[in-house]
Amino acid sequence: MTESILKLNQLAFAYSDKQVFTNLNYDLKKGDFLSIVGENGVGKTTLMRLILQELKPTGGTLSFLPNRQAVKVGYVPQFRNIDSEYPLSIQDFVGLNFARVGLPWLNRAERKRVSDILAETKLIQMRHRPLGQASGGEKQKAYLAQALLDQPNLLILDESTASLDPIAKTELLDLVKQINQEQQLTVIFVTHDIPLARRYADDYLFLSAGHYEAGPIAALTNEKVGDMDHA
Ligand SMILES: Nc1ncnc2c1ncn2[C@@H]1O[C@H](COP(=O)(O)OP(=O)(O)OP(=O)(O)O)[C@@H](O)[C@H]1O
C-alpha cells in the first residue's frame, strides 16, 4: 500500500470570525499528483498556507507522515512579472536558496546541485541570461528549479501556470509530471484550469463553499465544477 505523506483530519480554519472551511479530511499519498480546484475565495490559498505552516489550524489536525522532519515542502508561486532590469542570472537566482548570511558563496557540492537542477529543468543553456530578460515560462521554470534545489518530496504549485501561454503551461507541467513519475515527487497543483488539472493530475480535491469533494481526476465532472472554466 502506498504511504501517506500528509493527512488532514477534521481540519478547520477561520480568520477571526470568518470560517473558511471545517471538517476537511484528506489522505495525500506519496507520489500522488493532486489538483486542488475551486472558485475564488473558497480557501485554496489558506490551505496552502496551513501546509506551509504559515497558519495554524483552528480545528482538527494537519499531519506530515511519518513525521514533520521527513517531509520537505517546495513552493512555486503564481507568476509575477520580474522587472526587466532584475540583474541576477537564472543560475544565481536558482542558487539563492543556498545563500547563507555571511557566506554567500556556494561550495562545490552546491554548485553541482545548481547545475544538475538547471539541466533537469532545461535551463542550462540559458543559465547566464538575466532573469529579468527571460520569458514568462522561463521565469516560472527558474522558480520551479529554485523550489526543487533543496530536494523537496512535496511540491506545491500555487496557480503557478496562471497567465502563462499554453505552450509554457504545458512545458512546465510536463517537467513537473516527469519528476513526479521518475522520482515519486508528490505534487499539489492549485489551479482554476480544469482542463489542465484533468490532463496532469491523478486525483482532485474540489473545495466549494461549505463542502468539499475528492476522488480520482476522471470523476471531476463538469457538473461538479459548475461555472468554473472547464472548456
Ligand atoms: N488574512 C485574511 N484575513 C481575513 N480573511 C481572509 C484573509 N485571507 C483570506 N481571507 C478570506 O478567506 C477566504 C478564503 O481565501 P483564500 O485566499 O484562501 O481563497 P482562494 O480559494 O485561494 O481564492 P482565489 O482562488 O481567489 O485565490 C476568502 O473569503 C478571503 O477573503
Automatic annotation (TrEMBL):
Source organism of this protein record: Secundilactobacillus odoratitofui DSM 19909 = JCM 15043
Family: Belongs to the ABC transporter superfamily.
Keywords per UniProt: ATP-binding, Nucleotide-binding, Transport
The protein's name in its UniProt record: ABC-type Mn Zn transport system, ATPase component
A Pfam family of this chain: ABC_tran
Lineage: Bacteria, Bacillati, Bacillota, Bacilli, Lactobacillales
InterPro entries linked: AAA+_ATPase, ABC_transporter-like_ATP-bd, Metal_Ion_Import_ABC, P-loop_NTPase
Transmembrane regions: none
Residue ranges annotated for the ABC transporter domain, each copy included: 6-231
